[in-house]
Specification:
alpha/beta, 10-stranded mixed beta sheet, 10 strands
Length: about 300
């Protein structure tokens, strides 16, 4: 049987419009993310994230540098959204997330972009840092469904999400792909200005897993539904990898697909912090892989 994205069922029931209206209402006094800055974004104010009323994107293209289950042969239809609710001092996309380099796009044009990526053969539509633009994305999705969108949606986020917002996304995103950055409040405050990062992350991982479960991959090796977790190895174990991996294995699932990444490099403001002003040594990376295996995790890496 052909795969059917979850959002089509919500659309057919009329529920997708209800969710869209609820999410847009939040923009009147924005509490989309845990910062709850309450900016009146519908009235021209700018949130902590740097975003206003209109959605902005930096680029959209078939991405072949994502995880193998996302890219297959046709690539992941990646849309890089401008701005971010995190303030990571080592952000590799700081020109987009911090400096806001991008362009405004209306919901209809966004829908056309999604259809274009589908027509190019992309296996999914991959929204990078969607947290602060979720209302506009769902509005665009409704247009895209009318145009024939039929591929899964990927929620590719930094892991700093509002549980209330994520609950409103139940049945819309088939694939959640959260980062799991830090397990220490002091460290997350130091590098991302988020003292409650790990506390929120634990709630969010449980809710995302409740909605979509472990990553499901079809006979062609393509992800169709589920959660794909990312963890970036930091020098000097600044990420607190053991605590994060233990939580995933014991509180989420030992069948979790975990991409343990080794591509950290000191960019943007990382040079101001000596302890992260270098790449992780191979031994540090392999130690985290061994941690994961010792906890019974076996997918990804």
């Amino acid at each position: 049987m052909d795969f059917k994205p979850a959002y089509l069922s919500l659309y057919e029931k009329g529920e997708l419009n209800v969710r869209k209206d609820k999410l847009i209402k939040i923009l009147e006094s924005c509490i989309l993310c845990p910062r709850k800055c309450m900016a009146s974004r519908l009235n021209g104010k700018i949130g902590f994230c740097g975003a206003g009323k209109d959605i902005e994107i930096s680029s959209a293209f078939p991405h072949f540098g994502e995880e193998r289950p996302l890219i297959g042969r046709g690539g992941s239809g990646t849309i890089f959204l401008t701005h971010c609710n995190l303030r990571c001092v080592f952000c590799q996309n700081y020109d987009i997330s911090h400096l806001g380099e991008g362009k405004i796009i209306n919901p209809f044009k966004m829908a056309e972009t999604m259809i274009f990526l589908q027509q190019m053969g992309c296996h999914n539509i991959n929204f990078v840092t969607p947290t602060h633009y979720i209302p506009q994305i769902i509005e665009s999705l409704i247009h895209a469904i009318k145009m024939g969108l039929r591929v899964p949606l990927v929620y590719n986020c930094g892991g700093y999400e509002s549980i209330e917002t994520v609950k409103l996304l139940d049945g819309i995103f088939d694939i959640y792909m959260p980062d799991t950055k830090f397990s220490s409040s002091d460290i997350s405050q130091k590098y991302c200005n988020t003292i409650d990062y790990y506390q929120n992350l634990q709630w969010i991982l449980k809710e995302m897993h409740r909605q979509v479960g472990d990553l499901e991959i079809d006979i062609d090796g393509i992800a169709q539904r589920g959660m794909l977790i990312r963890h970036l190895v930091m020098p000097n174990n600044e990420a607190g990898s053991k605590e994060i991996l233990e939580f995933i294995a014991k509180e989420i699932s030992v069948h979790s697909y975990v991409n343990i990444m080794d591509q950290y490099r000191p960019v943007f403001k990382a040079k101001e912090f000596p302890e992260i002003n270098r790449r992780p040594a191979m031994e540090e990376y392999l130690n985290v892989i061994d941690m994961a295996k010792s906890l019974g995790l076996y997918r990804g890496f």
